[in-house]
Amino acid sequence: MSIRSLVFFVFLAAAVLTPAISWSQQATSENMISEENFIAINGIEQWVTIKGDRSKPVILFLHGGPGSVMSPYADHIYKDLEKEFVLVQWDQRGAGRTYGKTAPDELTSSFLQANPLTIDQMAADGITLAQFLCQYLGKQKIILFGTSWGSALGVTMVTRQPDLFYAWVGHSQIVNPSSDSLLYEKVLTLATRSHDTASLNKLREIEKPPYSRARTVGQLWRIVKKYERENSAPAPKGWFTEMPGFDNAKDSRDRENGDDYSFVNFVGDQQLKVSAMRRSINFAENNLEFKVPVYLIQGEADLLTPAASTRQYFDKLKAPHKEYVLLPNTAHGFNQAVVDAQVKIFRGIRITDH
Q1: 278 vs 8, more confident
Q2: Which of residues 304 and 23 earns the better pLDDT score?
């Protein structure tokens, strides 16, 4: 094992990336690397892991939520891909270890108001990270993948800075998430058809959208997730068990609190005086021109980002090449079919570094 300080690397001025004090590196061969640490990105330290064969193409993964980090679970899902790619997991601003680095003892309304999240800031973070990865790993471009919230972040990044990316691969693509009305009507129909008294009572209690409190949106989404679980194949057992090093009280608390912090910022809360990030997202009107190939992976049983919405967006967008992959027995989250579709797409993307 050796410690490599990132201060020995010279970055382009456009990257605006100040290295952390040290970068932990565990090399198993000349090309195989396993690195993880905090690095300073646009003013705050953010958690990044880099694993795989550095001679291979790089994939930057954008987790969902926002706040639902993948770094504690990635090895369970993607370990075999490290022979073919360099896999980069990033705890975004406000999530996981990045949130925990400077987290308050208690998530208060004053902290939320003083520390808003915006898609512009987070996209700028992602672009800065992508620039760093190209330089540090000696690549012309990288592959960008995002799921759920990460799909909103990814579309913003790739349409702003297409020269950094070989392709955009989106899963459960967000298009226009500002309203919960259609979602409410859908689960109301499902609960009525199933004679689901508990869900029907909760839906009557929270009434129809729009909602002024993030807590109420969360109550609706819990019912949505219940019906998605009932109508789709689950992820393999063990995928979402924390890896050693993440299975501890601090990491668990930081993931949970970061998830809450990010969710409130995403959906907004009038009482807490937090604006909703999702109100600024309308890709069907604003993000239709891509200069890179586009691949969208969609579950037929997805309620949060339904196939009707993503297909309509896919049909309207323009790209040098585009593919739409519709998966049966699959909802909003990951299962084996989703990962198999990702891997097939990753392997088929044309890389020109060599």
Answers
A1: 278
A2: 304
What CATH number does residue 130 fall under?
3.40.50.1820
pTM above 0.85, yes or no: yes
- Which residue, among 129, 140, 5, 8, has the nearest Cα to 63 in the 3D structure? 129
Q: How many domains are there within the chain?
A: 1
> Residue 310: pLDDT above 70?
yes
In a domain, 353, yes or no: no
Interhelix angle 197-206/181-193, nearest 10 degrees: 150
Give, in order, the Cα–Cα distances in Å from 344 to each of 29, 50, 134, 169, 325: 26, 21, 23, 11, 11
For 18, the domain range is 2-348
Residue 7 domain flag: yes
Q: What is the tens place of the pLDDT at every residue in 112-168? A: 999 999 999 999 999 999 999 999 999 999 999 999 999 999 999 999 999 999 999
- Measured distance CA(303)–CA(306) in Å, rounded: 5
Task: Give the DSSP H or E segment for 172.
Answer: none
Q: How far apart are CA 91 and CA 96, in angstroms?
A: 6
**Is 69 contained in some domain?**
yes
DSSP for 282-316?
-HHHH--B-SS-EEEEEETT-SSS-HHHHHHHHHH
Phi and psi angles of residue 220, each rounded to the nearest 5 degrees, phi first: -65, -45
Residue 44 falls within a domain, yes or no?
yes
Task: For 26, list phi and psi in degrees, rounded to 5.
Answer: -125, 105
- Each residue's pLDDT tens digit, 37-67: 999 999 999 999 999 999 999 999 999 999 9
